[in-house]
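<instruction>
Derive structure tokens from the sequence
<data>
Labelled lines for chain and fold
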Amino acid sequence: MTTVLGWLGAMCFAACGVPQAWKCYQQGTAEGLSLWFMLLWLGGEGFYVAAILLEFGFIAWMMFNYAANFVCIMIMGRYYFWPRKGS
């Protein structure tokens, strides 16, 4: 049971930024998105990845989770700092 809960938590954590990243992409702006949200999320991801790597080493299937979150953060950051012209 704990394994299932762990998987569900990891999937939710991996997907939590996708809706916001998609909205930023569609609108061409991250207006209304808190910079602190992005910085804390990025910091949390960094610390979490470091802890996992130090404790368990490289686990390939977990790296997809981290990569997906990192991509979402980069998309939101791009539109936060460089919104599309005319948006």
Notes: The chain has one domain: 2-81.
